[in-house]
Design brief:
Shape: globular
Number of strands: 17
Structural class: alpha+beta
Strand content: 15-25%
Helix content: 25-40%
Oligomer: single chain
Radius of gyration: 23 Å
Strand order of the largest sheet: 5-6-1-7-8
Number of helices: 14
């Protein structure tokens, strides 16, 4: 079984904000140079989708609500759904989370096949619990393999349950475009088009040797098997994490080496938090950058002695010469740092690390002179590996205050969508800010559409708040 929470980030925002229900909502980097993390289905109707530049999204749907991510809220909702999935999986515990909003569950031990009536009843009950206990909808696919379950969950989104009985795999797959197969992207699709292959059925009918000659042995063989509905991969409760990373897209190209070094050190601290929390170290440090002309650069180094790095100081020290080797002439629009070759070396072990350390890394960031209004191009963002969850010392949402604030200067940054609390008006969320003012709508998950009030950005009665409880 494959479970996918529908438009997850946007759905949580609509759940917690009554005024946004049924309306286009876009979550991600709210700046014009940002990237969309998730769009509600109302926004998707206008062509807005994940990984789309925010500037393009704003042109396609300018009336949508553009919100910064609230990862604390997403993590809480995800944890509850995973608890419900664990109940469904039962004592064997064959649950494989892929991200905050996606997971596989192996139900073969308690069923006679995908269309087993007892299993289907349990899946229906699970979906209803997600709706009533978490306030979200889930699309679920049930099949004889991970491949078929994934394809089934995608076919009738949102809020759907589709079962592919044993023996029906090829008939379900055949009419679908090749992009329906997990792992087939634009490049592979283009290569297959050169062979006259555009559907999964045509792919299944293609000689495997021809696919190998075009795609290589591993990809060609695996893709041909997938087209036939064959997928031997088991559900694996523990998955090996290969790296931990963080990156930022700056609102303006950065040339100043001191600023770049400070940003790199801050990102190293975020990576270190996740490494230390998981009790691991990494042997290889990588610095990546994207120049003003979109040229991508990367430099890596493996630490001597095999002990690896884990603290912010160790990561920053290893990353500094790598950054120095990158040409920043003309400015950098993106900078990132990552640690790979993870080992459980904090306790003297040398075993590969188990567990998913890379949930959707996406967080806003702000540099000197930037503000955070809801509707202007001066928003800031960070786009890391999808996905998955961000991490940063300043707060639970992974939001980074302005560099001026990090130097101790007084500064208040309100992010669109942020949870706040006012001493007089109660709980609400930020609709936008600018020119010294912040606009807040006072409502919550179980209230009516709330009223709107505007305050000075430094109003002492207004403070940040934890996400509301569903």
């Amino acid at each position: 079984m494959h479970v996918d929470l529908d438009a997850f980030y946007a759905a949580v925002e609509q759940r917690d904000k009554p005024s946004l229900r049924g309306k286009p909502v876009v979550v991600g980097g709210t700046a014009w140079r940002g990237v969309v993390a998730t769009a509600s289905y109302e926004a998707r109707a206008f062509g807005v989708g994940s990984a789309m530049p925010t500037a393009a999204a704003r042109r396609a749907c300018p009336w949508a609500a553009y919100l910064a991510p609230r990862f604390a809220a997403y993590r809480t909702a995800s944890a509850r759904v995973m608890e419900l999935l664990a109940d469904l999986a039962g004592p064997p515990g064959l649950l494989e989370p892929l991200s905050l909003d996606e997971a596989y569950v192996d139900l073969s031990g308690s069923s006679s096949g995908p269309d087993d009536e007892g299993v289907l009843a349990a899946v229906v009950a699970f979906r209803e619990r997600v709706r009533t206990e978490v306030g979200l909808t889930a699309s679920v696919g049930v099949g004889t393999s991970k491949l078929m379950a994934k394809v089934a969950s995608d076919l009738r989104k949102p809020d759907a349950l589709l079962v592919v009985p044993a023996g029906a795999e090829r008939s379900v797959l055949a009419p679908l475009g090749v992009r329906a197969l997990p792992g087939v992207g634009p490049a592979t699709e283009s290569r297959l088009a050169g062979l006259g292959v555009s559907t999964v059925g045509q792919l299944a009918a293609t000689d495997e040797r021809e696919l190998v000659s075009v795609l290589g042995r591993a990809a060609g063989t695996a893709l041909h098997a997938a087209a036939l509905g064959v997928d031997p991969r088991p559900v694996v409760p523990e998955r090996e994490a290969k790296s931990v990373s963080a990156e930022e897209t700056f609102p303006t190209d950065v040339v100043d080496r001191a600023v770049l070094a400070a940003e790199l050190h801050r990102m190293a601290g975020r990576v270190a938090e996740r490494l230390l929390a998981s009790g691991v170290r990494g042997r290889t440090v990588t610095v990546k950058a994207r120049r003003y002309d979109f040229t991508a650069l990367a430099r890596s180094a493996t630490t001597a002695g095999g002990a690896g790095v884990a603290t912010a100081e160790e990561i920053a020290a290893a990353a500094a010469p790598l950054l120095a080797a990158i040409d920043a002439t003309g400015g950098l629009r993106l900078l990132g740092v990552g640690v790979s070759g993870l080992v459980g070396a904090l306790d003297g072990l040398d075993d590969p690390v188990q567990g998913d350390l890379l949930a959707d890394l996406l967080a806003p960031s702000t540099l000197p002179g930037q503000s955070a209004g809801a509707d202007g191009p001066d928003q800031t963002d960070e786009h890391g590996a999808p996905a998955d969850a961000p991490e940063d010392a300043p707060d639970d949402d992974g939001v980074v205050p302005p560099a001026s604030a990090r130097r101790g200067a007084a500064a208040v940054v309100w992010r669109p969508g942020q949870d706040v609390l006012h001493a007089e008006h109660g709980a609400g969320w930020v609709q936008g800010s600018g020119v010294g003012r912040v606009t807040v709508r006072f409502e919550g998950p179980r209230t009516a559409v709330g009223r709107v009030r505007t305050f000075a950005v430094d109003d002492p009665a207004l403070s940040e708040a934890d996400p509301p409880v569903w």
